[in-house]
Amino acid sequence: MSDFIEDLLKDNSNILVAKPTTGIVFTFSNSGRGGNRNWFAMTGTQLESCLEDILESTDSFPARYHEKTWRQLFADNLNDDVARTMAAVQTLPLFEILAKIIHFSASDGPRSFKTINLEPARIRQAISLLKSYDPQ
Predict the structure, then answer these.
(1) Residues 45 and 53: beta-carbon distance below 8 Å
(2) pLDDT for 61-70, tens place per residue?
(3) Strand ranges for 72-131 from DSSP E
(4) What is the CA radius of gyration of the chain?
């Protein structure tokens, strides 16, 4: 298997391949509004990075989702390449997975769609929970 991975990494002429990561992977969908759901995957480490970036600028982010606003804020504030790409084309799914991670890291009850808790303590709690799943 390692030869296979090395061959993939060496053949980085046009479409780049990054070394596989270890850890938890979240697979999540879009809303399926057009009739078909599309699915995406991001690692816990990538989502943790998003939360850390949001934590640095919480005052800039609104608690309610507005596509243009959040798309621009993600573009301006996220450092992870995969997250920035995801945010540019699937803003709401990224927003929602981050909102769910924050919400359920505190084992809260029902959650409202298109809202996110931006209290720094709650974001830190979510980051800590994601770090606890990092096998490294």
Answers:
(1) no
(2) 999 999 999 9
(3) none
(4) 16
